Amino acid sequence: MAETRRQPFHAVYDTGEELFLGTCDSRGVGGVGVLVNTSLSININSFKELTNRIGYLRLKRCGPIPAFAIFIVYAPTSNNDEEVEAFHMDLKKLYREDHTFFENIIADFNQLSQFIMATNAFHGNSQFQKPHPQSWTSDSPSREYHNEIGHITVNKRFCLTDVAALPKFYTGSDHRLLPARIYFFAKWRKSD
What we know:
The protein is an alpha+beta fold. It has helices spanning 38-41, 81-97, 112-119, 124-127, 132-135, and strands spanning 9-12, 18-21, 33-36, 44-51, 54-59, 68-74, 102-108, 122-123, 138-139, 146-147, 150-154, 160-163, 180-182.
């Protein structure tokens, strides 16, 4: 989740799902969060808001499933080149410092190609081409134009099996949910 615009929040629901929300800056900009499925919530090691635009969820190894890191990102959209450059430098640094076997970035990116080339990541959206109704993730204010600004990238291509926007899930936002299917084999197990 991006643009949560609230104070830090953590909740565990009766269903077993866990919600982590980060805070925004003094201008009311930013804030990232993640809703963790019941089947994965028992593996949560930690959630940290590294900056008001970058969150980090770490899942611990459980049996044959290796440790897994998920970066939740809300990229700046401003024309301020210094702000955009600082954001990309922070993300590259944090991504490279993490030594988890599987790394996944769920992002609201406007300038994705530079990051992918700098980190040798794989762009999940382009690995699984979808018809237009399943690829766009954001509406223009007039709802006349649809944009693909939600992205999923991974450091290991073989773990990603599908990426597609959910067309009929109301979020109350101009953004649509972008889930990914990630698959693990026991033979990929590696200590963290």
